[in-house]
Amino acid sequence: MIYRILTVFAVLTFSFAFTTTDNLKPKLENSEIEAIASSIPEDNKSNFESKVATLYSEFTTNNISVPAMPVFEKAIKGYEQLEETGKVGKKILTVIDFGLSSTKKRMWIMNMETKEVLFNTYVSHGKNTGGEFATKFSNTVNSLQSSLGFYVTAETYYGKNGLSLFIDGMEKGFNSNARKRYVVIHGADYAEPSFIKRLGRLGRSYGCPAVPNTIAKDVIDTIKEESVVYIHKNDNNYLNNSSLLN
Questions:
Q1: Are 221 and 70 in contact (CB under 8 A)?
Q2: Which helix (H) or strand (E) holds 8?
Q3: 128: helix, coil or strand?
Q4: 77-113 tens-digit pLDDT
């Protein structure tokens, strides 16, 4: 959008340079500005799509498993906005696709500089979010449900689940109560693939994206301190109202 605004400014400046003071109105009407803006081709969208396509090609070339392209594109859109506002301190992007079964490795931790997938692993969803599949989401305290959207990782602490990582929700109405709800990343035995063999699905948390105990410390050490986490699901309410996707 900023590029388009600058372009409009340039067009207005050019038009003023070749307009006499007799013909110049004291103030341009909003409708006139909108008319000029609408006449300028919208290249931002195509540029973004081209950039995402290039990034996706690099990740698929370098790695065995990556998120689906539509999910990847949304993750990049939010990641870039958070980066532009100075909220990203570590160029790591974690994508969790809750559109997939909990029996699948639906969490990817990606290094945005090297284009390397550092981890592709299992991750649990909330007890009241669903069984094998995640279907219900909430930002409410004590809902025991997962929350969709973009987060920025924060500090670690030791709790009842051992080493745990605070994640701060960036989207009001969807995940802004994450810290108040103690929605954190931690390790859990019920997130191990052996649990799937016993029950046919992963175990469930109180809303936390829990990862296998065997790799929890490495995962947390990798993504702590201002990296981005995106939890995705094709949920119409979220997709239509997300401040970072719209």
A1: no
A2: helix 2-17
A3: coil
A4: 999 999 999 999 999 999 999 999 999 999 999 999 9
